[in-house]
Amino acid sequence: MSESARKDTPEQAEFRSYCQGWLKDNLPGEPPVRLPLTPLEIMTQEQLSYLQAWQKSAYDAGLVGCDYPVEVGGGGRNDCQRVANEEMIAARTPFMPNVIGLGMAAPTVFYHGQDKLKQDVLPRLFSGEDIWCQGFSEPEAGSDLASVQTFAEKKGDKWVINGHKVWTSLAHFAEWMIILLRTDKSHKYDGLSYFVVPIRSALGKGVTVRPLIKITGETGFNEVIFEDLEVDDSFRLDELGKGWQVAMTTLLHERGAGELQTPRSGGLKSKATHATNTANLIELAQTSYRGGKLACDDALTRDKIMQQVIREEGLRHNQRRSRVPALQDHPMRLPLQNKLLASEIAQDTAAIAVEVEGASASLYLGDDNAPAGGEWPMSYMNSYGMTIAAGTSEVQRNILGERVLGMPKSK
After folding, report:
1. Which of 87, 254, 259, 375 is catalytic?
2. What is the Cα 114 distance to its own chain's centre?
3. What backbone torsions phi and psi does residue 361 show, to the nearest 5 degrees?
4. Over the range 274-283, which residues count as b (16 or more CB within 10 Å of their CB) and which as e?
5. Domain boundaries, the chain
6. In 246-265, which positions are buried (b, 16+ CB within 10 angstroms) versus exposed (e)?
7. DSSP summary character for residue 131
8. Residue 261 has pLDDT above 50, yes or no
């Protein structure tokens, strides 16, 4: 029995047993296509359809949206999403494709949306039938989120949106977007408002989605252009001018700080294809030859891998601490620290793997001679997106220094 299971309440213990039984009988079969490393790299309709079917199956079984109220499509349980997540990870299920919807849009809509909006959008969000994306970054407003200029002008009972969002993951499949808009140009923070926008139904009618091709050849990122898109005022979250406060709810959950304060939606960390962690790095070193010798026989390589094992284990225990309210001396410290470290550990682990592979790291996916199917070089190239997403590593360090440690602002 795991440490988490030993601390289960009676409700959680019963639910854990149910999850284990259901997962044993209902794991999806071998995917018909190669799955990407994360949901943010979903490129094809075939990949999406397979993953959507899995999320819908898990939702119908009660493993997604567990802790949200029944009236908005949830399971009405009490702190059981963690249990479902743990069991899905243990069962090595595919990930949920609607990662932005589950991790960011759902809690934001739940805490700030009108009741009818919640009832209309959350059930299909949980089931994965409607994919969501996030409209925050702009060409001239990256790390300085409060400088967004995409404008919403009130005309009668409608809002007319014009502007340009960029780095919008999953926009090419998304039905809905959570979006931070400027509604008053005279105030930087108080001039922001927050909306949910149906974008798929508006393609070619006020919304244009253009893919951005990454170094990996994948097109998970997009730019989204709005030209006189009309949306109803009922799609606004919270009060006019409160967009910055609503955005903080989104960012807290994107960076992991909302885990203790909100119902959790589930299945976000499950394995898809190749887990780029130290266990697989060790396996790679045990099967890769460098200069006629196994990479694992090199003392320097072993030392580098061991350092990553230590960092990974330390991160795991830090994440455990994040679930203990008494250890939350500052609500931002552990979650931001975990986000910062997780993204950099993953990048460093992949970098060592590429070094271990040597010249073979130049072989692409599908090459029969590529170690581990070519996943490690893909992981390394994709890792740079994760040290940028949800605030760059530099931004995370500034927040930790200034708001947690009380250091003076950098100039």
Report:
1. 254
2. 24
3. -70, -15
4. bebebebbbe
5. 3-97+114-129, 133-249, 278-404
6. bbebbbbbbbbbbbbebbbb
7. -
8. no
Amino acid in the structure at residue 272: A
Gap between the Cα atoms of 95 and 97, Å rounded = 6
Query: Are 133-249 and 278-404 the same fold in CATH?
Result: no
Say how far apart CA 106 and CA 382 lie, in whole Å: 26
pLDDT digits (tens, 9 = 90+) for 104-120: 999 999 999 999 999 99
- Mean pLDDT, residues 83-87: 93
CATH number belonging to the domain at 133-249, selected among 2.60.130.10, 3.30.70.260, 2.40.50.100, 2.40.110.10: 2.40.110.10
H-type alpha helices, 27-80: 45-60
Superfamily of domain 278-404: Butyryl-CoA Dehydrogenase, subunit A, domain 3 (1.20.140.10)
pLDDT digits (tens, 9 = 90+) for 311-333: 999 988 887 777 777 776 676 77
279 phi-psi bin (left φ>0, alpha ψ -120 to 50, beta other): alpha
Cα–Cα dist 98/280, whole Å: 26
Q: Is 86 a catalytic residue?
A: no
Tens-place pLDDT, residues 206-233: 999 999 988 888 787 899 999 999 999 9
31 and 98 Cβ atoms separated by less than 8 Å = no
Determine the Cα–Cα distance for residues 208 and 45; give it in Å rounded to an integer: 19
For residue 22, what are the CA distances in angstroms to 57, 61, 274, 349, 352?
11, 8, 24, 34, 38
- In eight-state DSSP terms, residue 210 is E
- What's the rounded mean pLDDT across residues 191-205? 96
Lowest mean pLDDT among 52-66, 236-250, 319-333: 319-333
CATH topology of domain 3-97+114-129: Butyryl-Coa Dehydrogenase, subunit A; domain 1 (1.10.540)
d(CA 158, CA 161): 10
What are the tokens at 303?
Answer: 């030392």
Please check the confidence at residue 31 and state whether its pLDDT lies above 80: yes
- Show the tokens assigned to 78: 């009490």
Quickly count: other Cβ atoms within 10 Å of residue 294's Cβ: 14
